[in-house]
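ok so heres the complex, two chains, lmk if somethin looks off
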Amino acid sequence: MKQKTQVEDIDRSFYDFRYDEDAQDFFDSGITPDIIRGISEEKNDPDWMREFRLRSLEIYSRMPMVKWGASIEGLDVDNIVAYIRPKSRMNTDWDSVPDNIKETFERLGIPQAERESLAGVGAQYDSELVYHNVRKEVAQSGVVYTDLESAMHDERYAGIIKDHFMKLVPPSDHKFAALHGAVWSGGSFVYVPKNVHLEVPLQSYFRLNAKGAGQFEHTLIILEENSSLHFIEGCSAPKYYEAGLHAGCVELYVGEGASLRYSTIENWSKNMYNLNTKRAIVQKNGRIEWVSGSFGSHVSYLYPMSILNGEGASAEFTGITFAGEGQDLDTGAKIVHNAPNTSSYMNTKSISKSGGKSTFRSAVTVSEKAAGSKSSVNCESLMLDNISRSDTVPVIDVRTDKCDIGHEAKIGRISDEAIFYLTSRGLSEEDARAMIVRGFADNVSKELPLEYAVEMNNLIGLEMHGSVG
Amino acid sequence: MSEILKIENLAVSAEDKELLHGVNLTVGEGETHVLMGPNGAGKSTLGSTVMGSPEYRITAGSIIFGGEDITAETADKRARRGIFLSFQNPVEIPGISLSEFLRNALEQQTGKRIKLFEHKKNLAAAMSVLGMDSSYADRDLNVGFSGGEKKKAEILQLLMLKPRLAILDETDSGLDVDAVRTVSKGIEEYRRSAGGTLLIITHNAKILEELTVDKTHIISGGRLVREGSGQLAFDVLADGFEKYIGEE
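and the predicted structre for the whole thing:
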């Protein structure tokens, strides 16, 4: 017994020693080509990917910091490398997970094994099993659903990936896209062949919890002609990383007549900077539907973009943002109408409470090629107290007069009258507020898969809990 | 008969203006009382204050319900004790269906889980008493309801929640003859099925016709100026207030 312990001790100190050396290196020198080569080697990248990472790094170091939105001053960019350490500082010890995160797991009713996994502590036994079953069903339909890293080494997909990877969101897009290009790790690759309609939604949830993945994950989805898919990203339980930067990238290619629904519930722990980039390009008569719930993170920049590139293509964006204490969530959506008779519909709700700040940006661009296009933007905000803030920033850029564009914004508060009405029926003030907020969010939760809608409702209940002063 | 509601020397202010100046009013369990008075006399203020509206501040006196002092209690606690107020202008709550809301309220009040199937059955029965189209159950609470539909929905809540004391604040105002008849049918059903106590604020004799009124209270300028039998309500409605509040 004693002997065994001794062996383990020696082992660990050996690792600790190496780890310290690595960390030292990283902190002193910032992010360098050598570090990127290291990452690349560890991942066994093909040559082109290594070159891609290095080019992205170059772009990253040249580009100015993002300055126009929510403040990201708290992000230690000089030591950005601290965030990308290959042995990512995920918690290895359940005891060191903050109490508020544990409590949230508890109240969402998440089993212990999953909690530990979400907190980066353990492996996710249950979900792995589910994942395997899904994978079997998916494979039978001819759909490819795998992780991007291993797909790059599969000769059947290598070419497709090379042709699409960061072509829609090039590293030159903005500083964090460049960072992503240099350090991306983990993520999903989905390929749906022509005429295949996948009935079961695919969930990235099972993937993102793989060790070390999740902070810079890349999602690449390609739908061929007349196919359809529902992809669900994330999970409503908070994901906790000690190092707080998430700069993921999502690229969606929707072929002619194809239809993709992309649902997300983001609930990063409240120390995270969530600087995520999502983009879809939609061909003739294709359709993209985004459903997006943003609850977590300290600061978010999130504006999924849809490029309607073929005649008759359409986009729908349904989103909800809930900003609580200490949160500055800058969210929205962009639509580019770049072909005739394209249509888009945006419907968003934002909620702010306890000093939280929620900013909604919508950008609709209609190019001169997009005659006969239609767009409708509708955003509503609800502020739960008078210390919270809600802003709406619509941008509309129209280059043809043959189109129909509408924008509507509403900002409100919960009235005392409504609270009295509901409490007079026996609901506590807390429950009354939660009910009003749930009702406000209703048309978004309706768009979510059932279990996510239930979880979102629980989450609202949770956010509202203790909000009555 | 035991007292279910006892209001003692109640003074109430809103925004530093005193609206009720020492009101005394007692209602016995199972009785039906009518509260009348000219516009601005303080009828709704009294009703809302008994329900626990945070809009009004109690500066003196007390409210005793079922022998317990509830003066400082919040509206939800009073509701759980069995007090109900039918609102003049029910609030619209988007995204929450009438059915869902009632199930939630019932579960809060009883502290028990209510099976969806059972709830739907009870709700359908109550709605048929009021001749409400079953589609209202799934519509958002009061959203886009006409004035009459809102009042019916209030009475529907009364039938479902079965409170011990129901305060009806001009539930009949702005309704046509048929709708008034439906509302009064609902009130009768409440009396029959729940045996509850009623405090009715009204300007309309129609709604009282089918009920046995035990007592009438007349309020004017924030004071109770007269109390009488059930007949007094009908006399006031026939003759006008002048004759009955003049003696102050």
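quick notes: Strands of chain B lie at 3-14, 17-28, 32-36, 57-65, 68-69, 83-86, 165-169, 197-201, 215-220, 223-228. thats all i got rn
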